[in-house]
Amino acid sequence: MHENNWRTGYKNNVPHETKVIKKTKKSLAWRTKKKLAIIYLKKFLGFLLSTLGLFILLTSYTIFGGFLFHRIESSKEVQTQLDVKTSRAYHVDKLWNTTKSMNILFRQNWSNVASKILRNYTMFVFNITKCDGWNGQDRNESAELQWSFTGSMLYSVTVITTIGYGHIAPKTDEGRVVTIFYALVGIPLCIFSVTHIGGFMATIFRFLYKNIFCGLCCVCFNKMKRQKSFSREPSKKDVPIYVSLLLIAGYIGLGALLFGLWENDWNVLIGSYFCFITLSTIGFGDFVPGASLDPSSSQEKLVLCTLYLIVGLALLAMCFDLMQEEARCLLKTFGKKIGLINSEKI
Question: Which chain regions cross the lipid bilayer (predicted)?
């Protein structure tokens, strides 16, 4: 009797123990997956915060902005071009009907009527240019939109870099709202990324300057000067300020030549002016590559301008990093000479 009860109780407890074991295994498996997810998440975040990760993140964010603003604003631009085409045809027909309705064609009478028609059309063109951003292009298959993918990508770059050329701006409520949130995320991301990338480039350039450029200079010096320089206490080799200034001037000069040759109505002076205004993030917007009425190679010009802008900002960050360190050393030396800094405390 007792044996049967014991067997019955044992059989009843076996399923319960099996369920507990299964729950324990599931809990352990879930904890293991959770730990692995945290490890992979840390690795992913570590990669994003690296130089390569920040470059990929900033590039992806810019491309995403290009697709986003192209999707939002391109339809509005197409509708604007169609409205201009319709209005032009309407005013041409009105002018022709007015001319036909006059039995006797007197120049003064016809001029008065034609002036009113043309004045109305002029006001229409002015308003649609100012309010809807019409750029003078008609809607046809060969014409490129201002809000093409490349144009939208350049707009995204000018937003997150705070340059803001102003040659194009969102004309829809959706585009304006998206611009606000896109800038709120993109501006801090751009500042952090460009600063980090610029610091990384400064480290590489400092290494190259110390081991290659200075090595070549030592070969050109005579033995006496080399021995004199080697007898000094070893110190960290800083890049002179004039080298950084030459890099900036050379990059502006290169951009001036490229844009001066590419844009038909630009010269080297205008190209230099545009490059300086762009890299200094002033961004007047009075000169923008690919913004002329000639649509030939306009998209390639916008891509070149985008690349020039991104690389130029990183180069500026690198040069500022190099100049900051050298300027600090010069100020310390100057402070010692005039007695503002005690050399014993340094």
Answer: 44-69, 145-165, 177-198, 241-262, 268-290, 302-323
CATH topology of domain 191-338: Helix Hairpins (1.10.287)
Q: How far apart (Å, rounded) are the C-alpha atoms in residues 70 and 146?
A: 9
Taking 50 as the threshold, does the pLDDT of residue 244 lie above it?
yes
Return the number of other C-beta atoms located less than 10 Å from residue 247's C-beta: 17
Return the percentage of the chain with pLDDT > 70, whole number: 79
Compute CA distances 236 → 136, 199, 210, 233, 336, whole Å. 57, 17, 9, 10, 19
pLDDT digits (tens, 9 = 90+) for 324-339: 878 888 888 887 788 7
pLDDT tens figures, 80-101? 999 999 999 999 999 888 888 8
113-122, 242-251, 289-298, range with the lowest pLDDT: 289-298
Q: What is the domain partition of the chain in residue ranges?
A: 1-48, 69-189, 191-338
Question: Which of 87, 90, 89, 113 minimizes the C-alpha distance to 100?
Answer: 113
Q: How far is CA 255 from CA 95, 150, 235, 273, in A?
A: 48, 19, 36, 10
CA separation for the pair 234, 318 (Å, rounded): 24
From residue 29, how far is each of 32, 34, 35, 39, 40 by CA, in Å? 5, 8, 10, 15, 16
Cα–Cα dist 225/222, whole Å: 6
Cα–Cα distances in angstroms (integers) from residue 20 to residues 1, 23, 78, 290, 346, in the given order: 29, 5, 66, 70, 68
Question: Which residue, 289, 263, 256, 268, is CA-closest to 154?
Answer: 289
pTM: 0.80
* Per-residue burial over 206-235, b = 16 or more CB atoms within 10 Å of its CB, e = otherwise: beebeeeeeeeeeeeeeeeeeeeeeeeeee
